[in-house]
């Protein structure tokens, strides 16, 4: 009976995904009048509600950029908080139109779940946060330590690989949410909290005394994080992907929320194409010609989005590093709008 139930559940998800693809996610979003975007349950700098319930963060701004392109209004988003274990099912079933919640792009997720990653909005890697009382300065000193880990993430497998390769042992303490992991760490249930380094910096500021913990220098994995959509709907996939590419291209061209109107009146053909005054790159994606202009005017370019949410001037204080433009030593590179 369990096998029959599992088959039926899988069939139901497949039918739902097929119906979504046939109807067209963009058409559904337009008819509904707002984007349903799956985000984390609360991760400072990436997706978290403020004291008034307004969502903010790097991943939230990715949702806002897609809403600006699809609907002409970055505010037309319903944020649906999802933990790591439920995020993919929510997308597969059509509960959300896209995921934007610090999700790592892997071959399994790309080929076995019926999903597509539309790009990378943050290049990351797994690290370790320890209490300063532990007195360690390297992950190689953690043999026998107890680790707080979030379930349903790549973190668990990476940790097992790293300790096996280095002939060390550890004890896992597994939690459902990132908030629970930091609470467990602060309560002393584990010696170490391991996750993506960006998440460690975000979780550290939730501690009663952030200065009591440090992030070790080792990075043990590649964690390219980015927005995710269902397979089978190329129009929606292209719009989500090019919304991110538009922000990266805008930073490269020096287009910002503050100057895009002024620069639109200049003679640069690249800018004219970008804002929709020359050519028409929106029709094939089902949106107006000024879709990229709306993204930058309402949300900003990639650099603006990065700096206000997680950059050196934010509470997280993260340097651009790998997330700098390719022309400045980083990995952020987007195909041209042409």
TrEMBL record:
Residues 1-21 form the signal peptide. Keywords: Signal, Transport. Belongs to the bacterial solute-binding protein 3 family. Pfam families: SBP_bac_3. Gene3D superfamilies: Periplasmic binding protein-like II. SUPFAM superfamilies: Periplasmic binding protein-like II (SSF53850). InterPro entries: Bact_solute-bind_prot3 (IPR051455), SBP_3_CS (IPR018313), Solute-binding_3/MltF_N (IPR001638). Residues 34-263 form the Solute-binding protein family 3/N-terminal domain. It comes from Balneatrix alpica. CDD domains: PBP2_BztA (cd13692). This is Amino acid ABC transporter substrate-binding protein.
């Amino acid at each position: 009976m369990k096998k029959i139930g599992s088959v039926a559940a899988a069939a139901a998800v497949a039918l739902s995904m097929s119906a979504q693809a046939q109807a067209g996610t963009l058409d559904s979003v337009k008819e509904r009048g707002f984007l349903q975007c799956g985000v984390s349950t609360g991760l400072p700098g990436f997706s978290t509600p403020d004291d008034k319930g307004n969502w903010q963060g790097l991943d939230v701004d990715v949702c806002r950029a897609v809403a600006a392109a699809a609907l002409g209004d970055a505010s037309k988003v319903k944020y649906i908080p999802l933990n790591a274990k439920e995020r993919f099912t929510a997308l597969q079933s059509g509960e959300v139109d896209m995921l934007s919640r610090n999700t790592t792009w892997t071959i399994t997720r790309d080929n076995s779940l019926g999903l597509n990653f539309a790009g990378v909005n943050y290049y990351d890697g797994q690290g370790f946060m320890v209490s300063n009382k532990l007195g360690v300065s390297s992950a190689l000193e953690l043999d026998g330590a107890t680790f707080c880990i979030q379930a349903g993430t790549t973190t668990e497998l990476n940790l097992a690989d790293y300790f096996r390769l280095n002939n060390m042992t550890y004890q896992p303490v597994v939690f459902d949410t990132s908030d629970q992991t930091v609470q467990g760490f602060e309560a002393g249930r584990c010696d170490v909290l391991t996750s993506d380094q960006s998440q460690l910096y975000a979780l550290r500021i939730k501690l009663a005394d952030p200065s009591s913990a440090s992030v070790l220098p080792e990075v043990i994995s590649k964690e390219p994080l980015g927005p995710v959509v269902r397979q089978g709907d190329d129009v929606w996939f292209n719009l989500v992907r090019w919304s991110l590419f538009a922000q990266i291209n805008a930073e490269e061209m020096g287009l910002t929320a503050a100057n895009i109107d002024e620069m639109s009146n200049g003679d640069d053909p690249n800018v004219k194409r970008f804002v929709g005054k020359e050519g028409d790159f929106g029709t094939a994606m089902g949106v107006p010609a000024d879709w990229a202009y709306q993204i930058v005017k309402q949300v900003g370019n990639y650099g603006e989005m990065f700096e206000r949410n997680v950059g050196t001037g934010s509470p997280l204080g993260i340097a651009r590093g790998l997330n700098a433009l390719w022309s400045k030593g980083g990995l952020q590179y987007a195909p041209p709008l042409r």
